[in-house]
Design goal:
By secondary structure, this protein is α/β, with parallel strands linked by helices. The protein has helices at residues 19-31, 78-85, 98-114, 207-218, 257-270, 275-281, 285-291, 294-312, 317-328, 385-392, 432-435, 441-458; strands spanning 2-4, 7-15, 37-42, 121-126, 129-136, 139-144, 149-157, 171-173, 181-182, 200-203, 225-229, 332-345, 350-356, 362-367, 369-372, 423-426. The protein folds into 3 domains: 2-162 and 378-458, FAD/NAD(P)-binding domain (3-Layer(bba) Sandwich); 171-236 and 315-372, FAD/NAD(P)-binding domain; 250-312, no CATH class. β13 and β14 form a beta hairpin. The structure holds flavin-adenine dinucleotide (FAD).
Length: 459
């Protein structure tokens, strides 16, 4: 490692501390020469857990079966073996808890770090990267929240996509004391403040909403929960039995979204279970996305995305049954419409007004609490001061659909002008413009390995 001006210069800096960062680091440790140096810069208290695997509630389960959650694509049994080694009877088709998955990531990384002979140096830097400096020649420098600077010849951005903000700014009179609006539901402390019979309105009807509804019930909430989203669609469940995916050859599919959907619907009608078609699409989704023109991609995002999401990102069967039971018992009620305003009414709580879907009627839902579950899948770069700063310095560019940042087919960041100092890569949902399905472990782990291999080859 070299000391340049104010900074230590590493061979690789991994920025972030969620799954993507751990996956890249594990792959690098296995591939880099002993003299190489890696720094992981992250401010997450539970290194490797990120937002997804930090929860300690058992009902917060993985939405992908254990057999597909190994860190390593070439060792698919790794997670199930880890579960079994800890006395868990779960097998590859089961849905483990997300807390267990966080522990598996921690243990896997720790096992690699324990092998001291012949392994590269790995430094964990507990800090937020707050800005960039370009004055380190062939490396890119970062300013850290703790006042330090570090630089890397290779940089891998693993920042996730953050939480989407509220769709509209609240108006009116806030309640004295604590706010009745939960902007980031992943800070689970809000659950303790909700009284058992409080009325709750949730914005967004995806996986985050289901998580929060089940967490509310676990914390003793027994009041009604109103869910508002544009279409009022909620994720579907995985099958209880093994479904054999049908084989889909993307080269035989038409080029427009509407024609592709027609073909897929026909295939689903002919299949025993529609999930066979969705699961058949899984390994070829990135290829399919690559073949779509910009206009077709944008058409997909405008018209088909909610349907894609509920069929593709499904929940464990027993989680689905539990949630479905709450709908049947009228505890959870869905509303489809466009949110127009959020009004705070002091101690009287909060009112969400919306235009009911397909009508001009403005309806309202009054509640004690409003929870923002509008999700994180497509939060772009707006959540990250670091990415905004990198944009300003022309070190990154947003992708044309605003899903994240532009990368090439090797996950190498495309800069708007010239070449960035050092080699900069991005891994995870930030690269959705290039790959589309790159939010879940089975996709990210392949990308993480490819990036680590590319860096190792270049050294
Ligand atoms: C609730 C939830 C459940 C999920 N369940 C599953 C599942 O069951 N199966 C599955 O395959 N996928 C699941 N996912 C998808 C999930 O996004 C991925 O599996 C994976 O966790 C993404 O990890 P990541 O590291 O890319 O992003 P994140 O987990 O968001 O991590 C990003 C990290 O970067 C850090 N960071 C950000 N900015 C900076 C900065 N400037 N400096 C330093 N550090 C920074 C953050 O603090 C954070 O730790 C789930 C996602 C969520 C939100």
């Amino acid at each position: 490692m070299v000391q340049l001006e104010n900074a230590l210069v590493y061979d690789v800096i991994v920025v972030g501390s969620g799954f993507s960062a751990i996956a890249v680091t594990c792959n690098l440790i296995q591939r880099l020469p002993a003299k190489a140096t890696i720094a992981i810069v992250g401010d997450d208290p539970g290194f490797g857990r990120g937002t997804a695997y930090r929860t300690e509630l058992y009902l917060h389960r993985l939405n992908v079966p254990a057999g597909r959650m190994s860190l390593f694509p070439d060792r698919p049994e790794s997670f199930v073996e880890w579960l079994n080694s800890r006395g868990s009877p779960l097998s590859e088709g089961d849905f483990a808890s997300r807390n267990d998955y966080g522990l598996y990531l921690r243990d896997t990384l720790a096992a690699l770090l324990r092998k001291r002979d012949d392994r590269c140096r790995v430094d964990f830097v507990k800090a937020k990267a707050t800005g960039c400096v370009e004055r380190y020649g062939a490396s890119l420098g970062f300013l850290l929240g703790n006042g330090d600077e570090i630089a890397g010849k290779n940089v891998v951005l693993c920042l996730g996509v953050g939480n989407a903000g509220l769709p509209v700014d609240p108006v009116g009179e806030p309640a004295p004391g604590r706010s009745r609006i939960v902007r980031n539901p992943w800070r689970l402390s809000w659950l303790r403040r909700v009284a058992a019979t409080d009325k709750v309105v949730i914005l967004g009807s995806g996986l985050t909403m289901i998580d929060q509804v089940l967490a509310l019930r676990t914390f003793g909430h027994r009041g009604s929960i109103d869910v508002l989203s544009r279409r009022g669609l909620a994720p579907l469940g995985h099958a209880r039995t093994v479904i054999t995916p049908i084989k889909i050859d993307v080269h035989t599919l038409p080029k427009t979204i509407s024609a592709i959907l027609n073909v897929l619907r026909e295939k689903a009608d002919r299949s025993e279970d529609w999930r066979a078609v969705m699961d058949g699409l899984r390994p070829v989704t990135q290829e399919l996305w690559k073949r779509l023109s910009h206009d077709e991609r944008s058409r997909f995002l405008r018209h088909a995305l909610p349907w894609w999401s509920i069929h593709r990102h499904r929940v464990a069967p027993d989680v689905f049954d539990k949630f479905d039971g709450l709908i049947r018992d009228d505890v959870v009620r869905f509303h489809a419409g466009f949110l127009k305003s959020i009004e705070l009414r002091g101690v009287a709580g909060v009112v969400a007004r919306y235009r009911a879907r397909g009508t001009r009627k403005i309806a309202e839902i009054g509640a004690d609490w409003l929870i923002n579950c509008t999700g994180m899948e497509r939060a772009g770069i707006g959540h990250s001061p670091l990415l905004k700063e990198m944009m300003r310095l022309n070190l990154i560019a947003t992708d044309p659909l605003g899903l994240g940042i532009q990368v090439d087919a090797h996950s190498s960041v495309v800069t708007p002008i010239g070449k960035a100092p050092g080699r900069v890569f991005a891994v995870g949902a930030l690269t959705a413009g290039q790959y589309w399905e790159i939010t879940a472990v089975p996709d990210i782990r392949v990308q993480a390995r490819a990036v680590a291999e590319g860096i190792a080859r270049s050294m």
